Amino acid sequence: MILLLSLVAGCLFAGATYFLLRRNIMRLLLGLILLNHGANIVILVMSRLERKLPPFLSPGQIDPSKFIDPLPQALILNAIVINFGLIAFTLALAYRTHLALGCENLDTMLATEQLLDE
Protein backbone atom coordinates (compact mmCIF):
# COMPACT_ATOMS: atom_id res chain seq x y z
CA MET A 1 0.00 0.00 0.00
CA ILE A 2 2.83 2.38 0.84
CA LEU A 3 4.54 1.65 -2.49
CA LEU A 4 1.31 2.30 -4.39
CA LEU A 5 0.71 5.63 -2.63
CA SER A 6 4.34 6.61 -3.21
CA LEU A 7 3.89 5.98 -6.93
CA VAL A 8 0.66 8.00 -6.93
CA ALA A 9 2.44 10.89 -5.17
CA GLY A 10 5.26 10.72 -7.71
CA CYS A 11 2.79 10.82 -10.60
CA LEU A 12 1.02 13.78 -9.01
CA PHE A 13 4.32 15.64 -8.62
CA ALA A 14 5.25 14.84 -12.24
CA GLY A 15 1.88 16.08 -13.49
CA ALA A 16 2.16 19.19 -11.32
CA THR A 17 5.61 19.95 -12.71
CA TYR A 18 4.33 19.54 -16.26
CA PHE A 19 1.40 21.87 -15.68
CA LEU A 20 3.47 24.45 -13.78
CA LEU A 21 5.85 24.74 -16.74
CA ARG A 22 3.05 25.45 -19.25
CA ARG A 23 2.36 29.05 -20.30
CA ASN A 24 -1.31 29.18 -19.34
CA ILE A 25 -2.80 30.47 -16.08
CA MET A 26 -5.44 27.74 -15.81
CA ARG A 27 -2.84 25.02 -16.25
CA LEU A 28 -0.74 26.77 -13.61
CA LEU A 29 -3.74 26.58 -11.29
CA LEU A 30 -4.21 22.89 -12.06
CA GLY A 31 -0.51 22.32 -11.35
CA LEU A 32 -0.88 23.96 -7.93
CA ILE A 33 -3.82 21.71 -7.13
CA LEU A 34 -1.91 18.56 -8.13
CA LEU A 35 1.14 19.70 -6.17
CA ASN A 36 -0.89 20.08 -3.01
CA HIS A 37 -2.56 16.68 -3.41
CA GLY A 38 0.85 15.09 -3.92
CA ALA A 39 2.19 16.75 -0.77
CA ASN A 40 -0.82 15.54 1.21
CA ILE A 41 -0.24 11.97 0.05
CA VAL A 42 3.45 12.22 0.99
CA ILE A 43 2.49 13.35 4.50
CA LEU A 44 0.01 10.47 4.69
CA VAL A 45 2.65 7.94 3.60
CA MET A 46 5.22 9.31 6.06
CA SER A 47 2.76 8.73 8.91
CA ARG A 48 3.17 4.97 8.42
CA LEU A 49 -0.20 3.61 7.39
CA GLU A 50 -1.07 1.37 10.31
CA ARG A 51 -4.33 0.32 11.88
CA LYS A 52 -4.25 1.55 15.45
CA LEU A 53 -6.63 3.07 17.96
CA PRO A 54 -7.85 6.66 17.57
CA PRO A 55 -5.75 9.25 19.43
CA PHE A 56 -8.05 9.46 22.46
CA LEU A 57 -6.65 8.31 25.77
CA SER A 58 -9.00 6.51 28.08
CA PRO A 59 -8.17 6.19 31.80
CA GLY A 60 -7.14 2.53 31.56
CA GLN A 61 -4.93 2.84 28.47
CA ILE A 62 -1.68 4.73 28.90
CA ASP A 63 0.55 2.88 26.41
CA PRO A 64 1.11 5.43 23.57
CA SER A 65 2.33 2.76 21.14
CA LYS A 66 -1.25 1.55 20.68
CA PHE A 67 -2.48 4.92 19.38
CA ILE A 68 -2.06 6.55 16.01
CA ASP A 69 -0.22 9.88 15.78
CA PRO A 70 -2.73 12.72 15.18
CA LEU A 71 -0.10 15.19 13.91
CA PRO A 72 -0.08 14.05 10.23
CA GLN A 73 -3.87 14.25 10.14
CA ALA A 74 -3.74 17.79 11.52
CA LEU A 75 -1.05 18.78 9.01
CA ILE A 76 -3.08 17.43 6.09
CA LEU A 77 -6.22 19.21 7.29
CA ASN A 78 -4.26 22.46 7.63
CA ALA A 79 -2.76 22.00 4.16
CA ILE A 80 -6.23 21.48 2.65
CA VAL A 81 -7.48 24.74 4.18
CA ILE A 82 -4.43 26.69 3.07
CA ASN A 83 -4.67 25.22 -0.44
CA PHE A 84 -8.33 26.23 -0.66
CA GLY A 85 -7.39 29.84 0.12
CA LEU A 86 -4.49 29.76 -2.34
CA ILE A 87 -6.63 28.33 -5.13
CA ALA A 88 -9.44 30.83 -4.48
CA PHE A 89 -6.96 33.73 -4.60
CA THR A 90 -5.27 32.43 -7.76
CA LEU A 91 -8.62 31.85 -9.44
CA ALA A 92 -9.76 35.40 -8.61
CA LEU A 93 -6.43 36.76 -9.87
CA ALA A 94 -6.75 34.79 -13.12
CA TYR A 95 -10.30 36.04 -13.59
CA ARG A 96 -9.29 39.67 -13.08
CA THR A 97 -6.32 39.22 -15.42
CA HIS A 98 -8.58 37.77 -18.09
CA LEU A 99 -10.97 40.70 -17.70
CA ALA A 100 -8.15 43.26 -17.91
CA LEU A 101 -6.07 41.71 -20.70
CA GLY A 102 -8.43 39.30 -22.44
CA CYS A 103 -5.92 36.44 -22.48
CA GLU A 104 -4.64 33.55 -20.37
CA ASN A 105 -1.27 33.07 -22.03
CA LEU A 106 1.68 34.30 -19.98
CA ASP A 107 3.70 35.22 -23.09
CA THR A 108 0.93 37.54 -24.26
CA MET A 109 0.80 39.10 -20.81
CA LEU A 110 4.52 39.86 -20.98
CA ALA A 111 4.03 41.51 -24.38
CA THR A 112 1.26 43.65 -22.87
CA GLU A 113 3.58 44.64 -20.03
CA GLN A 114 6.20 45.83 -22.52
CA LEU A 115 3.59 48.02 -24.20
CA LEU A 116 2.75 49.62 -20.87
CA ASP A 117 6.43 50.46 -20.16
CA GLU A 118 6.80 52.54 -23.33
Would you write up a description of this structure?
About 70% of the residues lie in helices and about 0% in strands. The model has no long low-confidence stretch (mean pLDDT about 85). It has one domain (about 1-50, about 70-115): Helix Hairpins. It is mainly alpha-helical and about 120 residues long.
Any chance you could write out the topology, listing elements then pairs?
Elements: H1 2-20, H2 25-46, H3 71-101, H4 106-117
Helix pairs in contact: 1-2, 2-3
Helices and strands, in order, run as HHHH
CATH-level-2 architecture: Orthogonal Bundle
Radius of gyration: 21 Å
What is the strand content?
A: under 5%
Helix content: over 70%
Poorly predicted regions are: none
Outline of the structure:
The protein is built from four helices and no strands. The protein has helices at about 1-20, 25-45, 70-100, 105-115. The longest helix is centred in the C-terminal third of the chain and has 31 residues, at about 70-100.
Essential attributes:
118 residues; mainly alpha; 4 helices; Helix Hairpins
